[in-house]
Every structure is written in C-alpha cells, then in structure tokens.
Amino acid sequence: WLFGYISTTGRMEPAQRPGVSARTERKAQERAKILQQENKRNTLKLVSRILKKSECERTEEELSVLQRYEETVQELTLRQIRRDNLKRKQEEVVDSPDELLKKVKELSAAVREANYLVVYTGAGISTAASIPDYRGPNGVWTLLQKGRPVSASDLSEAEPTLTHMCIRKLYEEKLVQHVVSQNCDGLHLRSGLPREALSELHGNMFIEVCTACSPPREFIRLFDVTERTSLHRHGTGRSCPHCGAELRDTIVHFGERGTLEQPLNWKGAAEAAGKADLILCLGSSLKVLKKYACLWCMNRAPNKRPKLIIVNLQWTPKDDLAALKIHGKCDDVIGLLMKELDLQTQEYDKLEDPIFSLATALRPEEEDSHSRKLIVPPAGQEDCSQGSTVEPGGMSVQGGWYGRGCAKGRKKKKPST
Fold first, then answer.
1. Contact 299, 326 (CB under 8 A)
2. Contact assessment for residue 252 and residue 245, using Cβ atoms and an 8 Å cutoff
3. Cα end-to-end span (Å), the chain
4. Is 202 a catalytic residue?
5. How far apart are CA 337 and CA 19, in angstroms?
6. How far is CA 16 from the centre of its chain?
7. What whole-number distance in Å separates Cα of residue 392 and Cα of residue 411?
8. Catalytic one of 188, 202, 327, 370
9. What is the pLDDT of residues 221-247, one digit of tens each?
C-alpha cells in the first residue's frame, strides 16, 4: 500500500492502508501537512533570529544551524534583498542645490535643441495644489498599504500650480508641442492649455459626456461630476438635453480601459509620441504609463527613440533609459528652467480660468443633482451654476474618483468571532 496503485484513468492514486478508513487517512495527511508547515515556520523564525546577530556574536551551535538549513538562509537573504530594494525605490531623493542647478542647465539645453517636445505629467505636479499623490511617502496607496487612514480633501479648491502655468507658457512659446497627463483633476484645462494640445488619459473630473449622441457630446461643469460613479459604474444621474440618455463621467479607473475619444485623446498622445524627439516626464512614478507601449516608441531601435528626461523624487522603472534624472520637486525644477530659458513664470489668475466660459449650466430640474462644492467664478463674471444649492465654504468632501479609489484600496476587516 506504500506504493499506491494505478487507477482506471491511468493516474497514480494513493493506496489506502488495510483497516484504515479513507476519512482517517485524509485527516492524518492534513495533520502531517499542518505539522510540516509549523516546522517550516519555526525554522524560519530560528534562522531569522540568528541572521539578525552579527557574525562575531553567533555561537558554534547557531553556525551549525545555519549550515543545516542553508536553503532557508538563502530564502531569507533573498527576502531581505527584495525588502531593501523596495524601500530604496520608495525613498524620496533630493538633489543638492548645486547638482539641481547643473541638471536644470542640461534640461534647458535639451529643451532648446528639441524639435518636438512632449511632456508626460503625473500626480507629482499637483501636490503643490494640496492634491495627494499615490506612491509618495504620504500618497494614497502608500498610506493604505500601511493601514493608515486617508484624509478627506476637497479637490474643487485646488488651483493650477506653477508647473501647470509654466507648461502652458512653454506651449505658447512653441517649446512644448503636446501634454499627456495621467491626472483627473482638470488643472491642465484650467491653466488655459488648449484642448488639442492635451491628452487626459485617465479622464477629467469636471467633464461628463453623452455617448448615445453621435458624435459624443461633452458637458463641462463647475463641480466634480463623479459623486455617484465608481469602477464600472459611470452614470452621473443627469441626462443629455438633446437625446435624454444618461450622462457618464470620463474617469478611467484602475482595471478599466478608456474608450472615449475626448478628453482622453489617445490619438493625439500616440501621434505626439511618434513625432517626439524629447520626452519630459514630470512628477510621475511611470508605473502605469510604462504599460502604454505607444507612448515610448519601443518598436524603434534604441538610438532612434526620443530622448527621455525624468523629474521625480522617487525611483521610476524608466530611470535606466533616461538621459537625465532630476531629483527635485516639479515647481522648483520648472521655476529654475524658466529662468534658464529667460521666460517669465506665470501665476494662476482665476479671472482667466477658461472653465467658466467652457462650463455648461445645469437645467433647473438638475440643480439638486449633486452635493459637490462649486468652483466659484470671480465677482462680476457670469455664474454657470444657475443657483446651485451648494454654497461656497460648504462641507469639505472627497472627489468621487479619488474617494472611490481609496475605498477600493481598503481591505475589509473580518468580523470578530
């Protein structure tokens, strides 16, 4: 019975010992498996405790244990290497003032020489507007992985940062040809960057669309339209005034594939990447962007690909391919770049925010369709809100796309028994 038998299916089946029921045999195997796992855990703890000591502190008995469990030592050593690498990649590095200035001079020369510069932006350019990033030390995913709460924030209070405004200025000076953004905060649009020069790959929190109309109709609002939306549920609760179909948001959540032509503008992003001879990445970990092959021209020979410059405090998976990596905050780097280029930095002026002229007013029956805080136009400028019930200075709330992302990342606690 030790060797088993061959069943009619041709597979080797465990033979049952004489006088022992199948249930008893199965339970014995389960107990043996549990004991084996327990022994492995104890061995791991023992070896781990010994490895934490310095070599001069280890006794002869402990050295013999390490020799006996050589495979366990190798496993724990590899685990520690992986932990150290992960910790190193999550650390924020800041270049010294002299090093930063030297690198910005290199960046300035590359910008001047470029014939077609495309800028890729991530959450790091909006942290100065009090919008948290995802993978920084206080980022959304970082805090959730550590089991810490994510504080609520009202994204409608955010305004374009120095980086947003300088990117627009560089576009006006014909030094930047296209901007590809992962951000949903709408700050590039509000900075005055033209729609045709912008690809918002993950959507815009101020835009809802009717996909039943042909072509799809866009409605820009003065509030976050994602209050009722989440992963695979994009209906906003409002309807198209032309065909009556339900409007949907434009957000592309993790695990979704964006199909809308606008504001995603994938066509513009791919065409720009194909023409680019310089790609400048600002404030992005590139862990998502790296998956979009069309943005990196990887089908070309390495010497035919665009030159890559990265501005980010943390490690990115594209660092090894970059001609230059600048460790600094985006506003600091862009501010120095503008000086090197002899261009004046621009500050955000609410009077010039294009969202107020682009916004579509809600219909009277839709005035109570949201509870989000409004972007309030400056005094004397027409208000597209048409008497919305949400007043300035109201309760602080989370943006729908941001809040849903946080909820998705939380692990449900098991009920206590």
1. no
2. no
3. 42
4. yes
5. 84
6. 55
7. 34
8. 202
9. 999 998 888 888 889 999 999 999 999
